[in-house]
Specification:
Number of strands: 10
CATH superfamily: P-loop containing nucleotide triphosphate hydrolases
Strand content: 15-25%
Radius of gyration: 16 Å
Structural class: alpha/beta
CATH topology: Rossmann fold
Strand order of the largest sheet: 2-7-1-8-9-10
CATH class: Alpha Beta
Helix content: 40-55%
Shape: globular
CATH architecture: 3-Layer(aba) Sandwich
Number of domains: 1
Length: 225
């Protein structure tokens, strides 16, 4: 059974998919069988094969295990909105038990499984559940992606507190430079205040290969042991 991690972000558009790809590529380099999963995706495109998420396809491309698209992205929605609203629009409720079944199927054929969330930590997936409930159901340690921009310190610290309050385990964070020049002092402040190690700083406009180079798997594996 694979060892899995869940990648969340301080908000939408902070680089979760980019960092998830980088993690997958970095673990592939170590000789492991690695799979990515995007349990829920909205804003999917219609294709001859059905609805497809660009994020999910990127995760598949980064991995080194042949997988069925449906296993990677069991809930694909065309409306580009919050997942619970997208699910309501098409009459397809998101069920955590279904996500868990697909996760377990992927995990049987891999050594490492990187699960990417949607939006931020508390994004609703139904009238009562959020992505945090998915993390609890899968019992996964959490990696936080912080986009280095105005507001990042507050968002990161609030997210860290929310993760802890749910009884989930934050094991590390990745800083993603969203601009050519990141706000001065943000990285250092977050290193001082977040109680888990920095796993890497991804430069602005880094390629997936370069992003993988920036991740310290030594720190990562020690923080998750």
């Amino acid at each position: 059974m694979a060892h899995g991690w869940f990648v969340t972000g301080t908000d939408t558009g902070v680089g979760k998919t980019w960092v998830s790809q980088a993690l997958i590529r970095a673990f592939v380099r170590t000789g492991q069988r690695v799979v990515g999963m995007k349990p829920v995706a909205s804003g999917c495109a219609r294709t001859p094969q059905g609805l497809r998420s660009a994020d999910a396809e990127a995760l598949i491309a980064a991995g080194n295990v042949a997988v069925d698209y449906r296993d990677v992205n069991p809930y694909a929605f065309e409306p580009a909105t919050a997942p619970h609203l997208a699910a309501n629009a098409v009459g397809t409720p998101i069920q955590i038990e279904v996500i868990r079944d697909y996760y377990q199927r992927l995990a049987t054929g891999a050594d490492t499984l990187i699960v990417e969330g949607i939006g931020g930590w508390q994004v609703p997936i139904s009238t009562t559940a959020t992505m945090a409930d998915v993390v609890q159901a899968l019992d996964l340690p959490v990696i936080l992606v912080v986009g280095l921009r105005l507001g990042a310190i507050n968002h990161a610290l609030l997210t860290q507190e929310a993760i802890s309050a749910r009884g989930c385990r934050l094991v590390g964070w990745v800083a993603n430079a969203l601009q050519s020049e990141s706000p001065v002092g943000y990285l250092e402040t977050l290193q001082d205040r977040l109680p888990v190690p920095l796993l890497g700083l991804v430069p602005h406009d880094a390629s997936p290969e370069m992003a993988a180079d920036c991740l310290n798997l030594g720190v990562f594996t020690r923080s998750t042991s």
